[in-house]
Amino acid sequence: MKRPGFTFDVDRALELTGNGARAILALFIVAHVTFAVAAGGEPMHSWRGWLSLALVIAAAVLVVAPGPYPMRGSWVAAVLVAVVISTVLMDWSLRTHGWPGYASWHFGANTFLLLAVGLRGRAGWSWAGMLGMLAATVTWTVTTGQGVMLAAHLLDWQAGTLLIGTFFAVGLSRTMRNLQNVTEAQTVRAAADEAARAAAELRDRRLTALERTVTPALRAIAAGTTTAAERAEFLITEAMLRDTIRGGILAHEPVVSSSGDARRRGVDVVLLDDSRDCGMPLDDTDAARAWAAERIAAVAHGSCTVRISGTPAEWVVSVVSEQRGQQAMRIPRAAGATPG
Fold this sequence. Notes:
The protein is of the alpha+beta class.
């Protein structure tokens, strides 16, 4: 059996895109604008620093935007592009001697973005962004004669933060899937219980109707006091009981009353449901019964067989009588009734 898709609303459960996330976004923007303006150093003296800040803020808005879980692939790609471009622009604007301090604010900002991507179901892609940031930084430190170790020192804390976030995101995903499995199992169990309850109610109704219909007849027969008219009515009752077994969806009003009246006229009526779990919409079922009842009422003598059958394309209700020959009503599936 095909496994259903992941449907648990993780974003809503953790407020990843709700009011709490928007509050964190506001704090993020205020903090990094403050870092950039107050301690941005050389990078913020050129267009590169301001473009990087704009890219980071735009990506931050995107990662808290309401959307599906996992995060849309196009959104993930946009965030990763913003991470890599801002890293390139900022790295090549930093001084090439000494520790950059808060002038390298973009490392922490981009790690925050990658954490959010991981929490929204794209942990693997968050690490792709970290590798892109690392590759750009290693290229900058090597080409400027600062060595690979500076790049490692600049990003070791960021990589550790992302690693912890990844463990949390993966654990969260497993927990949510387990919750979904439990929910699905409970839903299936509830549906089975409801089906059993409905079947029990139907059985009780049928037993009640059977007792109401048959018991008086059996008592009269046992007492030996039946008249010819009563015996004729008992035969009609017997035929109605057969209808409940073979007639399926046809063994309901107005077909029941029309069949009873026809039998009292001497017509031999047979109801057959060969559709096997018909699944016909209620409106079409009502139309089919009404149509069949009208055709039965028009038969004055002889025999009359009403049958409903189904194909992948349509249901067919047919009435065959000695008096009027064969008539059919065709009901296309997922469409209205078309009498024939």
